[in-house]
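Support case: FE2/S2 (inorganic) cluster complex. Customer-provided input:
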Amino acid sequence: MTTARHAVAVSVNGRRHERLVEGRRLLVDFLRHDLGLHGTHVGCEQGVCGACTVLLDGDAVKSCLMLAAQADGHAITTVEGLAGRGDLHAVQQAFREAHALQCGYCTPGFLLAAVALAEQDAALEGDALRAELAGNLCRCTGYQNIVEAVERYLKQAAGGRG
Ligand code: FES
Ligand code: FES
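Agent response - structure generated as follows:
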């Protein structure tokens, strides 16, 4: 028996990719295994931990909850797409300055969640910001520094627009 495959054309970090995928192929597996972008991590595989967060047309989505076929025609940003040539993205710089990572497993998800938040509400801080980040978990429990880093980045993003 042959398994039906679907044509998927996506832009990932500004580069177009076309593949045939099984209907059950998860977006996170497509990114990691078909495109070799291992910066998107897999944690819970049920939408709880946020390790697999990527941007889909600028919105943060959990790529373990999406099928690759659903991303057809959309633009995806993974952590590999954040830094320029030799330059850290501002959110990466903020995490570096605030010492906001330990093992780093959760970090790509937090970075992309922060980038999406900067587009939605760069004035977020304190408890409101913590609530917005509740969909991303850190097993090393370094939340204080992570929140500080995201606050730092959001202030910078807001300033850049003002
Ligand atoms: S692996 Fe997707 S939310 Fe945990
Ligand atoms: S830094 Fe280790 S899981 Fe967050």
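Strands lie at 5-12, 15-22, 53-56, 59-62, 75-77.

Case will auto-close in a few days if no follow-up is received.
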